[in-house]
Specification:
165 residues; mainly beta; 13 strands
C-alpha cells in the first residue's frame, strides 16, 4: 500500500478576476474541504488594483459604522466590480463581483462558456465536493461565505456573481 501523507500541504485557491486584460487576485482561500476555511486578502489597497485596471469609474465616500470609507467601482457595460477601503486606501473585506458580459472573468470562467467546460474548470480548482449544479445554475461553496453563483441560459454561462463582507 502506498504511503499517504498525513499533513499534506493545503491547496490555496485564488479568487482572481481578469478585467481589461489583466488579472487581480483579491483573495486566497485555504482549507476548502474543512470547516475552518481561511480567507486571505491579496489585493490589499486601491493602489494595487488601480495599477492593474486603471482608475475606478466611480468613487464614493460612505459611512462604515463610526468612520468613513470609500467604495471603488470598475464598470463596463453590465459588468461591475467593487470593494471598500478605509480612508487610507487599504481594502476592507467587502467585495462585489457582478459579471454580465464578456468584459471580465472570475476564476477563469467567462460569460458564454459552456456549462460542461465551466464545471470541469471549477471542479478542478475547488474540488467536486464544493461545486454543485442544477439546470439553471452552478454554485461554488466558499466556506462560510455566500457561494459563487454562475447562472446558466441555454447551457451556457449567462452571468457570474460573488460578494461577501
Amino acid at each position: 500500500m502506498p504511503a499517504q501523507p498525513v499533513n499534506a500541504a493545503t491547496k490555496n485557491i485564488n479568487l482572481t478576476v481578469r478585467y481589461k486584460g489583466r488579472n487581480v487576485t483579491f483573495e486566497a482561500y485555504r482549507n476548502m474541504n474543512t470547516s475552518e476555511v481561511k480567507c486571505t486578502q491579496k489585493a490589499k489597497t486601491y493602489a494595487a488594483v488601480k495599477k492593474a485596471w486603471g482608475k475606478a469609474n466611480k468613487v464614493q465616500k460612505e459611512k462604515c459604522g463610526d468612520y468613513h470609507c470609500r467604495s471603488y467601482t470598475w464598470k463596463s457595460g453590465k459588468t461591475r466590480i467593487s470593494f471598500l477601503t478605509d480612508k487610507n486606501g487599504k481594502r476592507m473585506g467587502d467585495i462585489v463581483i457582478d459579471i454580465q458580459n464578456k468584459k471580465a472573468t472570475l476564476c477563469g470562467i467567462k460569460v458564454g462558456m459552456s456549462k460542461k467546460q465551466a464545471l470541469q474548470k471549477l471542479r478542478k480548482q475547488f474540488g467536486k465536493k464544493n461545486v454543485s449544479d442544477t439546470k439553471n445554475q452552478i454554485l461554488v461553496k466558499m466556506g462560510p461565505f455566500d457561494p459563487m453563483t454562475f447562472n446558466l441560459k441555454s447551457g451556457k454561462i449567462s452571468s457570474i456573481y460573488f460578494w461577501h463582507s
